[in-house]
Amino acid sequence: MKVIGGWTAAAGCVALFLNACGGGGKPAGSASEAARTGNPGQDGPAMTVKLRVLSSPPQYVSGGDARVHVTAAPGQRDKLELWLNGERLDAALQEVSDGLEGVIRGLEVGDNLLEVKHRTANVRDAITLRNYPITGPMFTGPHQTPFVCTTTQGAVGRQPLVDSATPPGHRVIDAQGQTVGYSHNCSIDTFVSYFYRSTSGALKPMPADGSRPPDLSTVTLPDGRTVDFVVRREIGSINRFLYSIAMLAPFGEDPAKPPDTSTTRDSTPRGDRGALMA
Fold it and tell me: Is 215 exposed, middle or buried (0-12, 13-18, 19+ CB in 10 A)?
């Protein structure tokens, strides 16, 4: 889930992997050429429409979502529709300088046909996306067991999700130390936490009560704006690995309901899990 940020301050947008443990088939994207034929009279520069995936190569999509871009002239954009596997998508695409951009969801495991159509039902372009489960594997072959799962260590500090009642797998225990199941995939629920940079230069957790820290510093963005130095960090798992994304965030966000950074533009940074390929 390619991490694109609307705020590119000193804190920047950092994506890194923390180790949590330890396809073959026809090439995806082959539908594109067929979709661009059979439309006589609609091939001039002003009518050209091009569909592509931003978050990863089309044959390596994971987790059921992907960020896509549609190149289209201004007069075309409000007339275009996205269709996934024969059904129209209700995707919130945002206008960018050369077309439309946004995240699509609902991909099935395996090959998915994504089409961009004119509202008169003419297919202007198409691409095949091959989607893999968020737990993997993607191209490394079957998972090995047993393995070392370290989600209880470091910045994560939580038990992996139970996905099996029996071993092999990492033993998951409750607060009393009793075994509640086993984890083959070493996955965790995605969670978000907030930090701020103090006037002394230290990175501190935001107050749990939501109050404004008296030593909250500010940072000046490349466009000249000065904003609070608040950092949102998202941690989740992909294919037995942990990822961490950190970016600037507005002060006062609700930790229980962080914005969907995959579709927000302008004043809020964007990010997308699908770009982080294990």
Answer: exposed
